[in-house]
Specification:
Blueprint: H1 3-13, E1 18-23, E2 28-34, H2 43-53, E3 65-71, H3 73-82
Parallel strand pairs: 2-3
Antiparallel strand pairs: 1-2
Helix pairs in contact: 1-2
Amino acid sequence: MQPKEIKKMIEAGLPGAQAKVYSNDNTHFEAVVIYAGFADKMIVKQHQMVYATLGNHIQSNDIHALSLKTYTPQEWEKIQTQA
């Protein structure tokens, strides 16, 4: 699986989300997901929302590992101004 495919699935499953997906081997992935719908949700719930967009691709091992960082647009903007 390619990072761009995962990006499309996340963004389709979370309308309005912005996803940045990286991989060195196309089985282990890192994703940054910025989504207004994460507001007022615990990080576990945010990650569950992202995993739900990927369907059975994790269970089928198309995606062996996924490291997630999730942010609201406001949190992301704050991080960017500090960098």
